Amino acid sequence: MKNWGVVIAFLIGYSVFGDAEESVHWYDRLHQKMNTELEIFSWYLDSSVCELCESNTATNIDEGFQNSLSTLFRDEVFDDEYRKSRLWIRNTMLYDFQQRRFDMSRHLRINIRFPKSLDRFNIIFGGDEESDDSQSNQLINGFSKKIAISYRFLTQNLIKGTTSTGVRSYKNLYSNVKLWIPIEREKWRYRLGQRFEYSSDEKFLEDTTLTIDHLLSKSDFLCWYVGRQKKELFYAVEYFGSFTYNKLSEYNQGYQVGGSVYGVTRPVHQIINYAIFNRYKQNFYKEWLFYEWENRLEWREEFHFKSGYITLFSVEIFFGD
């Protein structure tokens, strides 16, 4: 709670005293120094393993409306397409009114890219950034601890992919292959994904996802997301889906409004979780400090589908270009 007291005091101070964009404080210098150290370390490590490469081919995530929203929310598209090293720290407070439960969580993720090796390699420390059927469930359970090395396929056709191997926790080794097909047709964007994975804890699993975006304008779009997952140690097939309206007010702020469902095929075919939600995120200081507020109204089978309200508040620090 003391850490959150410091954060809240900073937010109040920033809102009361002038425009902090005009001055450079010690924490700005510290952030810039860490950015520089991260870039130098990435370059040195990259050069050590790829001395024969001719040039640096690193590129940032493609500019454009949806990718701007992906950059803000750090979603699956951002994780797949962002081509620079980064460090991501996120502190979250969650309160579940139905269970009268308060949770605090802290998540850290470091991605070390290898741009001189044509962006093929990536070292990951920290948690997964993979999508989940419920943001609140993801935050309650916490991100898995992970150290891994990832290799990106350089294909000449429509299919893109990565393969990674590493450890998520003590004695939990894993290896996976992830493939996706991105398609753009005027105001429509499609992304079909497939993942195969084997781990010491959960054994074999595979999942399939489909994302369909319809652009309404340069600043907003509709998104349909559906998926299924099968685990060797879980007797049922899990399925999930969501529909969201996404709005990017400016490059540094955006919000989402939508609904989601989650279901299983056994012991009977049924949906066990419904939810409607709204989510707002803003870059409120320089280009590296963000806050996010999400509100969810859920109907869960374990509570006999009685409505339950969940609220989440997060502060995020981002190191990287």
Give short descriptive properties of this protein.
14-stranded antiparallel β-barrel, globular, 14 strands, 5 helices, alpha+beta
Structural description of this entry:
The protein is of the alpha+beta class and 321 residues long. It has one domain: Porin, CATH 2.40.160. It is built from 5 helices and 14 strands. It has helices at 2-16, 26-49, 65-73, 76-81, 135-141; strands at residues 86-96, 101-113, 121-126, 146-152, 160-169, 172-185, 188-199, 203-215, 220-231, 237-250, 253-264, 270-285, 289-300, 307-319. A 14-stranded antiparallel beta barrel has the order 1-2-3-4-5-6-7-8-9-10-11-12-13-14. A hairpin with a 2-residue loop joins strand 10 (237-250) and strand 11. The chain starts with a helix and ends with a strand.
Count of DSSP H/I helices: 5
**How many domains, as an integer?**
1
List SSEs in N-to-C order.
HHHHEEEHEEEEEEEEEEE
Q: What's the N-to-C terminus distance?
A: 30 Å
CATH T-level topology: Porin
Radius of gyration: 20 Å
Widest β-sheet, arrangement of strands = 1-2-3-4-5-6-7-8-9-10-11-12-13-14
Residue ranges: pLDDT <50 for 5 or more in a row?
Answer: 52-65, 129-144
Level-2 CATH architecture: Beta Barrel
**Protein structure class:** alpha+beta
Q: Per DSSP, what share of the residues sits in E-state strands of 2 or more residues?
A: over 45%
Q: How many runs of DSSP E, i.e. beta strands? A: 14
Which outline best applies?
A: globular
